[in-house]
Amino acid sequence: MNETELTKYDYDSITQFYIDPTSPNQGITQLEKVLSRASGYCDIIDPYFSESSLDWLIHLPSDIPIRILLYHLDKDLSKHTKFKTLLNKLRQKRKGVIEAKLLKYKKQNGTPLHDRYIFTSRYGLQMGNSFDAIGKKDVLITRIANHKELRTTIFEDLWSSKEYISDGETKILASFSI
């Protein structure tokens, strides 16, 4: 698909698209266009969301609030500090609020976060890999049909929950706002 075709493309009808690491430009352009069409809010679950992932947020409309659930910053304090500095700079440039939480189990290693999601009032997407993998690894992005229900079931529950049931066992969660 060339640039003219991409301009005419109906981004609301995309069901899935693939970002090829050997030639990612077309897929990256599609994701940028889809992100620019977000409305209402943007809730992101990506356990590997990091400072380089923040660059993707500039494609979202500046006035919508963004909430991010992530995990892996917990392991390296210098990355955490750099992420927070860049996040604060981005917060100053936007009209909409950006909230970020690191979510992990309180009494053991790990997190309930695994799959990657982007929820907006207009659409929901599931990503086969992290934002950080775009251009480096295969990334398949699929539209979620019942995104508003899944946002409640997946995102809202994790954002506000103090417990998580995994394999029939209740695990206590700890979250840290960034």
Give the key terms:
178 residues, alpha+beta, globular
Question: What is the overall silhouette?
Answer: globular
The mean pLDDT is 88
What fraction strand?
25-35%
List SSEs in N-to-C order: HEHEEHEEEEHEE
What is the tally of helical segments? 4
Largest β-sheet summary: 9 strands, mixed
Which structural category do the helix and sheet elements fall into?
Answer: alpha+beta
Low-confidence stretches: 1-6
| Strand order in the largest sheet | 1-7-6-5-2-3-4-9-8
**How many strand elements?**
9
Radius of gyration: 16 Å
Q: N- to C-terminal separation?
A: 39 Å
Helix content: 25-40%
Question: Could you please describe the fold and organization of this structure?
Answer:
With 178 residues, the protein is an alpha+beta fold. Helices cover 28% and strands 27% of the residues. The chain has 4 helices and 9 strands; from the N terminus they run αβαββαββββαββ. The protein has helices at residues 3-8, 25-36, 77-93, 147-160; strands at 16-19, 42-45, 66-70, 98-105, 116-120, 124-127, 139-143, 163-166, 169-177. Strands 1-7-6-5-2-3-4-9-8 form a 9-stranded mixed sheet, sandwiched between helices. A hairpin with a 3-residue loop joins strand 5 (116-120) and strand 6 (124-127). The longest helix is centred in the middle third of the chain and has 17 residues, at 77-93. It starts with a helix and ends with a strand.
